[in-house]
Design goal:
Belongs to the peptidase S8 family. This protein is of the alpha+beta class and about 325 residues long. It is about 20% helix and about 25% strand.
Protein backbone atom coordinates (compact mmCIF):
# COMPACT_ATOMS: atom_id res chain seq x y z
CA UNK A 1 0.00 0.00 0.00
CA UNK A 2 1.09 3.56 -0.58
CA UNK A 3 1.47 6.04 2.26
CA UNK A 4 -1.32 8.59 2.41
CA UNK A 5 -2.31 11.59 4.47
CA UNK A 6 -6.06 11.20 3.93
CA UNK A 7 -6.69 8.55 6.59
CA UNK A 8 -7.37 11.14 9.26
CA UNK A 9 -9.52 13.18 6.90
CA UNK A 10 -11.68 10.11 6.29
CA UNK A 11 -12.21 9.70 10.03
CA UNK A 12 -9.88 6.72 10.39
CA UNK A 13 -8.35 6.18 13.80
CA UNK A 14 -5.98 3.48 12.70
CA UNK A 15 -4.56 1.55 9.79
CA UNK A 16 -3.00 -1.78 8.86
CA UNK A 17 0.48 -1.53 7.45
CA UNK A 18 1.73 -4.47 5.36
CA UNK A 19 5.48 -4.28 4.85
CA UNK A 20 5.17 -0.51 4.56
CA UNK A 21 7.29 2.42 5.68
CA UNK A 22 4.18 4.43 6.58
CA UNK A 23 4.32 6.19 9.95
CA UNK A 24 1.87 7.99 12.18
CA UNK A 25 3.07 11.22 10.58
CA UNK A 26 2.15 9.95 7.11
CA UNK A 27 -1.20 8.71 8.34
CA UNK A 28 -2.37 12.11 9.50
CA UNK A 29 -4.75 11.79 12.48
CA UNK A 30 -4.66 8.00 12.52
CA UNK A 31 -2.97 6.92 15.76
CA UNK A 32 -3.48 3.15 15.95
CA UNK A 33 -1.29 0.99 13.74
CA UNK A 34 -1.27 -2.77 13.18
CA UNK A 35 1.96 -3.91 11.56
CA UNK A 36 1.83 -7.08 9.50
CA UNK A 37 4.26 -9.08 7.40
CA UNK A 38 3.42 -10.10 3.80
CA UNK A 39 2.05 -13.59 4.56
CA UNK A 40 -0.34 -12.42 7.27
CA UNK A 41 -1.14 -9.36 5.17
CA UNK A 42 -2.37 -11.55 2.32
CA UNK A 43 -4.68 -13.42 4.73
CA UNK A 44 -6.02 -10.12 6.07
CA UNK A 45 -6.55 -8.73 2.58
CA UNK A 46 -8.42 -11.86 1.44
CA UNK A 47 -10.67 -11.69 4.53
CA UNK A 48 -11.39 -7.97 4.03
CA UNK A 49 -12.29 -8.48 0.35
CA UNK A 50 -14.48 -11.55 0.93
CA UNK A 51 -16.92 -10.29 3.55
CA UNK A 52 -17.87 -7.40 5.81
CA UNK A 53 -14.75 -7.43 7.97
CA UNK A 54 -14.99 -7.20 11.74
CA UNK A 55 -12.13 -6.61 14.20
CA UNK A 56 -11.84 -6.37 17.97
CA UNK A 57 -9.16 -5.35 20.44
CA UNK A 58 -8.73 -7.55 23.49
CA UNK A 59 -6.77 -6.77 26.65
CA UNK A 60 -3.16 -7.91 26.52
CA UNK A 61 -2.41 -11.19 28.23
CA UNK A 62 0.86 -12.86 29.02
CA UNK A 63 1.87 -16.31 30.10
CA UNK A 64 5.41 -15.17 30.72
CA UNK A 65 6.90 -14.58 34.15
CA UNK A 66 7.03 -10.87 34.86
CA UNK A 67 8.72 -8.81 35.97
CA UNK A 68 12.31 -9.98 35.66
CA UNK A 69 15.62 -8.14 35.70
CA UNK A 70 16.83 -7.05 32.27
CA UNK A 71 20.30 -8.04 31.13
CA UNK A 72 21.26 -4.38 30.67
CA UNK A 73 20.30 -3.44 34.25
CA UNK A 74 23.04 -2.11 36.55
CA UNK A 75 24.74 -4.66 38.81
CA UNK A 76 26.50 -4.78 42.16
CA UNK A 77 28.48 -5.12 44.28
CA UNK A 78 29.38 -1.50 44.90
CA UNK A 79 32.91 -1.02 43.51
CA UNK A 80 33.62 2.05 45.67
CA UNK A 81 31.95 1.54 49.06
CA UNK A 82 31.23 -2.14 49.61
CA UNK A 83 29.21 -1.45 52.77
CA UNK A 84 26.52 0.33 50.71
CA UNK A 85 24.34 -1.98 48.63
CA UNK A 86 23.98 -1.14 44.95
CA UNK A 87 21.67 -1.11 43.11
CA UNK A 88 19.11 0.34 45.55
CA UNK A 89 15.96 -0.46 43.62
CA UNK A 90 14.73 -1.59 40.20
CA UNK A 91 11.85 -0.18 38.17
CA UNK A 92 10.14 -0.91 34.82
CA UNK A 93 12.50 -0.06 31.97
CA UNK A 94 11.77 -2.41 29.07
CA UNK A 95 9.36 -1.49 26.24
CA UNK A 96 8.14 1.65 27.99
CA UNK A 97 5.76 3.96 26.10
CA UNK A 98 7.18 7.44 26.59
CA UNK A 99 6.70 10.93 25.20
CA UNK A 100 9.27 12.04 22.63
CA UNK A 101 10.01 15.31 20.90
CA UNK A 102 8.69 15.64 17.36
CA UNK A 103 12.03 17.22 16.48
CA UNK A 104 14.04 14.29 17.83
CA UNK A 105 16.05 12.55 15.14
CA UNK A 106 14.24 9.46 13.94
CA UNK A 107 10.92 10.33 15.61
CA UNK A 108 9.17 10.96 12.26
CA UNK A 109 6.90 13.41 14.03
CA UNK A 110 5.67 10.91 16.62
CA UNK A 111 4.61 12.21 20.03
CA UNK A 112 5.20 8.81 21.70
CA UNK A 113 7.62 5.96 21.23
CA UNK A 114 8.58 2.66 22.84
CA UNK A 115 11.99 2.70 24.49
CA UNK A 116 14.04 0.39 26.72
CA UNK A 117 16.93 1.07 29.05
CA UNK A 118 17.94 2.47 32.41
CA UNK A 119 16.89 5.88 31.05
CA UNK A 120 13.31 4.59 31.13
CA UNK A 121 13.53 3.16 34.67
CA UNK A 122 15.07 6.32 36.12
CA UNK A 123 12.09 8.64 35.44
CA UNK A 124 9.79 5.99 36.91
CA UNK A 125 11.58 6.31 40.25
CA UNK A 126 11.91 10.10 39.94
CA UNK A 127 8.15 10.35 39.44
CA UNK A 128 7.48 8.26 42.55
CA UNK A 129 9.89 10.44 44.54
CA UNK A 130 8.01 13.56 43.41
CA UNK A 131 4.67 12.07 44.39
CA UNK A 132 5.98 11.01 47.81
CA UNK A 133 7.40 14.49 48.44
CA UNK A 134 4.01 15.97 47.53
CA UNK A 135 2.27 13.55 49.87
CA UNK A 136 4.83 13.89 52.69
CA UNK A 137 6.54 17.30 52.32
CA UNK A 138 8.16 16.90 55.74
CA UNK A 139 10.09 13.78 54.72
CA UNK A 140 13.83 14.02 54.10
CA UNK A 141 15.41 12.54 50.96
CA UNK A 142 16.67 9.63 53.04
CA UNK A 143 13.17 8.93 54.37
CA UNK A 144 11.78 8.89 50.83
CA UNK A 145 14.52 6.55 49.67
CA UNK A 146 13.91 4.29 52.65
CA UNK A 147 10.15 4.19 51.99
CA UNK A 148 10.80 3.12 48.39
CA UNK A 149 13.36 0.46 49.31
CA UNK A 150 11.66 -1.13 52.33
CA UNK A 151 8.31 -1.55 50.54
CA UNK A 152 9.74 -2.97 47.29
CA UNK A 153 8.57 -6.37 46.05
CA UNK A 154 10.82 -9.37 45.46
CA UNK A 155 7.98 -11.52 44.06
CA UNK A 156 6.87 -11.91 40.42
CA UNK A 157 3.39 -12.37 38.92
CA UNK A 158 3.58 -16.11 39.59
CA UNK A 159 4.18 -15.45 43.30
CA UNK A 160 7.74 -16.70 42.90
CA UNK A 161 11.03 -14.94 43.70
CA UNK A 162 12.03 -12.39 41.06
CA UNK A 163 14.19 -13.85 38.30
CA UNK A 164 17.26 -12.47 36.63
CA UNK A 165 17.50 -12.33 32.83
CA UNK A 166 18.94 -15.85 32.76
CA UNK A 167 15.99 -17.33 34.65
CA UNK A 168 17.91 -17.75 37.91
CA UNK A 169 16.71 -16.05 41.12
CA UNK A 170 17.76 -12.40 41.22
CA UNK A 171 20.09 -11.46 44.07
CA UNK A 172 20.23 -8.02 45.74
CA UNK A 173 23.17 -7.29 43.42
CA UNK A 174 20.71 -7.50 40.52
CA UNK A 175 17.50 -6.11 42.04
CA UNK A 176 18.63 -4.14 45.10
CA UNK A 177 15.74 -4.10 47.57
CA UNK A 178 13.35 -5.24 44.82
CA UNK A 179 10.98 -3.70 42.28
CA UNK A 180 9.38 -0.40 43.24
CA UNK A 181 5.81 -0.41 44.61
CA UNK A 182 4.59 3.22 44.65
CA UNK A 183 1.35 2.67 46.60
CA UNK A 184 3.14 0.80 49.38
CA UNK A 185 5.88 3.42 49.54
CA UNK A 186 3.26 6.05 50.40
CA UNK A 187 2.66 4.31 53.74
CA UNK A 188 5.86 2.45 54.71
CA UNK A 189 5.24 2.36 58.47
CA UNK A 190 8.89 2.78 59.47
CA UNK A 191 11.77 4.54 57.74
CA UNK A 192 15.55 4.73 58.11
CA UNK A 193 16.47 8.43 58.21
CA UNK A 194 19.85 10.14 57.83
CA UNK A 195 21.08 13.52 59.09
CA UNK A 196 23.71 15.90 57.70
CA UNK A 197 26.07 14.60 60.40
CA UNK A 198 25.58 11.05 59.10
CA UNK A 199 26.56 12.09 55.58
CA UNK A 200 29.61 14.02 56.81
CA UNK A 201 30.80 11.06 58.88
CA UNK A 202 30.28 8.87 55.84
CA UNK A 203 32.53 11.18 53.82
CA UNK A 204 35.06 11.05 56.66
CA UNK A 205 35.22 7.28 56.19
CA UNK A 206 36.27 7.77 52.56
CA UNK A 207 40.03 8.25 52.50
CA UNK A 208 40.00 10.76 49.66
CA UNK A 209 38.12 13.41 51.69
CA UNK A 210 39.88 15.82 54.05
CA UNK A 211 38.35 18.01 56.76
CA UNK A 212 39.22 21.07 54.67
CA UNK A 213 37.22 19.69 51.76
CA UNK A 214 34.32 18.86 54.08
CA UNK A 215 34.34 22.41 55.41
CA UNK A 216 33.98 23.74 51.86
CA UNK A 217 30.90 21.56 51.40
CA UNK A 218 29.38 22.09 54.84
CA UNK A 219 30.33 25.79 54.91
CA UNK A 220 31.59 25.49 58.48
CA UNK A 221 34.24 23.43 60.27
CA UNK A 222 33.55 19.76 60.85
CA UNK A 223 35.82 17.44 62.79
CA UNK A 224 35.83 13.84 61.70
CA UNK A 225 35.35 11.32 64.51
CA UNK A 226 38.45 9.41 65.60
CA UNK A 227 36.67 6.16 64.87
CA UNK A 228 33.64 5.48 62.74
CA UNK A 229 32.05 2.20 61.72
CA UNK A 230 30.44 2.53 58.30
CA UNK A 231 28.38 -0.57 59.07
CA UNK A 232 26.30 1.67 61.35
CA UNK A 233 25.40 4.07 58.53
CA UNK A 234 21.60 4.21 58.87
CA UNK A 235 20.87 2.75 55.45
CA UNK A 236 17.75 0.70 54.50
CA UNK A 237 19.95 -2.21 53.40
CA UNK A 238 22.59 -3.98 55.47
CA UNK A 239 25.83 -5.10 53.81
CA UNK A 240 28.78 -6.65 55.66
CA UNK A 241 31.54 -7.34 53.11
CA UNK A 242 34.27 -8.61 55.46
CA UNK A 243 32.88 -10.77 58.25
CA UNK A 244 35.60 -12.88 59.92
CA UNK A 245 33.88 -13.97 63.13
CA UNK A 246 31.01 -11.78 64.30
CA UNK A 247 29.95 -8.16 64.25
CA UNK A 248 27.22 -6.10 65.91
CA UNK A 249 25.76 -3.08 64.14
CA UNK A 250 22.86 -0.76 64.87
CA UNK A 251 19.99 0.89 63.02
CA UNK A 252 17.48 3.59 63.96
CA UNK A 253 13.91 3.43 62.64
CA UNK A 254 11.39 6.26 62.71
CA UNK A 255 7.66 5.65 62.90
CA UNK A 256 5.80 7.50 60.13
CA UNK A 257 2.63 5.41 60.38
CA UNK A 258 0.11 4.61 63.05
CA UNK A 259 1.20 3.54 66.55
CA UNK A 260 1.79 -0.17 66.76
CA UNK A 261 3.94 -3.11 67.79
CA UNK A 262 6.48 -4.31 65.22
CA UNK A 263 7.97 -7.80 65.41
CA UNK A 264 11.05 -8.88 63.51
CA UNK A 265 11.46 -11.81 61.15
CA UNK A 266 14.90 -12.74 59.84
CA UNK A 267 15.88 -14.85 56.86
CA UNK A 268 19.46 -15.80 57.67
CA UNK A 269 22.10 -15.80 54.93
CA UNK A 270 23.61 -19.25 54.39
CA UNK A 271 26.34 -19.92 56.96
CA UNK A 272 25.41 -16.89 59.09
CA UNK A 273 23.48 -16.73 62.36
CA UNK A 274 21.59 -13.49 62.97
CA UNK A 275 20.31 -12.10 66.27
CA UNK A 276 18.19 -8.95 66.57
CA UNK A 277 17.80 -7.11 69.90
CA UNK A 278 15.18 -6.16 70.76
CA UNK A 279 13.08 -8.44 68.56
CA UNK A 280 10.00 -6.20 68.92
CA UNK A 281 9.52 -2.43 68.83
CA UNK A 282 6.51 -0.65 70.31
CA UNK A 283 5.74 2.77 68.82
CA UNK A 284 3.27 5.00 70.66
CA UNK A 285 3.34 8.05 68.39
CA UNK A 286 4.25 9.33 64.94
CA UNK A 287 7.86 10.52 64.69
CA UNK A 288 9.07 8.27 67.50
CA UNK A 289 12.53 6.76 66.95
CA UNK A 290 13.84 3.45 68.25
CA UNK A 291 17.16 1.65 67.90
CA UNK A 292 17.84 -2.03 67.36
CA UNK A 293 21.07 -4.01 67.15
CA UNK A 294 21.88 -6.76 64.68
CA UNK A 295 24.55 -9.33 65.48
CA UNK A 296 25.88 -11.48 62.65
CA UNK A 297 28.08 -14.47 63.41
CA UNK A 298 29.83 -16.75 60.96
CA UNK A 299 29.06 -20.43 61.56
CA UNK A 300 32.51 -21.35 60.24
CA UNK A 301 35.83 -19.59 60.73
CA UNK A 302 36.41 -16.89 58.14
CA UNK A 303 32.79 -16.77 57.06
CA UNK A 304 31.42 -17.56 53.58
CA UNK A 305 33.86 -17.15 50.69
CA UNK A 306 31.18 -15.71 48.42
CA UNK A 307 28.38 -13.26 49.09
CA UNK A 308 25.30 -14.76 50.74
CA UNK A 309 21.92 -13.09 51.09
CA UNK A 310 19.14 -12.84 53.63
CA UNK A 311 16.51 -10.37 54.78
CA UNK A 312 15.33 -8.58 57.91
CA UNK A 313 11.63 -7.70 58.05
CA UNK A 314 9.64 -5.71 60.63
CA UNK A 315 5.86 -6.24 60.65
CA UNK A 316 3.01 -4.75 62.67
CA UNK A 317 0.17 -6.56 60.93
CA UNK A 318 -0.37 -3.66 58.51
CA UNK A 319 3.07 -2.60 57.33
CA UNK A 320 5.98 -4.69 56.07
CA UNK A 321 9.39 -3.02 56.41
CA UNK A 322 11.91 -5.17 54.54
CA UNK A 323 15.68 -4.78 54.19
CA UNK A 324 18.17 -6.91 52.21
CA UNK A 325 20.95 -8.52 54.22
CA UNK A 326 24.19 -9.10 52.31
CA UNK A 327 27.26 -10.79 53.87
CA UNK A 328 30.66 -12.05 52.77
CA UNK A 329 33.50 -13.51 54.77
CA UNK A 330 36.79 -11.71 55.30
Amino acid sequence: MECTNVLGELGAVGYISINSTCTNKNAGAATLAVISDTDHGQILTAYINSTEPMASITPPMTEETTPSVAKYSCRGPNPVTQEILKPDIIAPGTFIVAAVSKEMEGSDGRLYDVQSGTSMATPMVAGVVGLLKLLHPEWSPAMIKSAIMTTASTIDNMNQPLKDYDGKPASPFAMGAGIIQPNNAADPGLVYDLTVKDYLEFLCSQTNFTETQLASVYEKPFTCPKSYNLLNFNYPAITVPKLSDQVTLSRIVTNVGTPGLYKVNVTEPEGISVTVKPDSLLFKEVGEKQTFELTLKAKEVGGPKNYVFGRIVWKDGVHTVSSPLVVKGA
